[in-house]
Amino acid sequence: MTTIKIVNKSSNPLPTYATDMSAGMDLRAALSESVELKPLERRLIPTGLYIELPAGFEAQIRPRSGLALKKGITVLNTPGTIDADYRGEIGVILINLSQEPFVIEPGERICQMVIARYEQAKWEEVEVLSETVRGEGGFGHTGKK
Question: What range defines the domain where residue 30 resides?
Fold first, then answer.
C-alpha cells in the first residue's frame, strides 16, 4: 500500500475505502452552503483536499455510479487526472445531465478517486508497424458473438 501526503482544509473526514476491495475512495463537497445544479449546468465543486502523489502515480476522478444512475449527475471530464506534481486543491467538475435541478449539500459524496500507477512513454518513430489479426479494424470491428 502506498502512503500519500494529504492536507484537509475541509470539515469533512479524509477519503476512505468503503470495503477492503474498493478501488476508489469517495470525495466530499467542501461547501459552506448548498449549491443547486440546474439541468445541463456544470460547476467546479471544491473538496478542500490537497495531495502530494509520489512520482509514477496519478489520481483519477470518476463519477459515483449511484449519483449517475439515480440523479443524472456525473463528472464532466471523466476520468479527470491529477498529476503527481499538482499541489492545488482538488476540484471536481460536476454536470447535471438530468431534467431536474439537483442540490449538492455540504459534505455530500460527489465522486470517487482512484490512485493509479502509470509510466511515461517515449516515442520511437518507425515506417511500419507490426501486423496483427485485428489490423486496422476498430469501433465495433470484432462484432457480436
Answer: 9-117
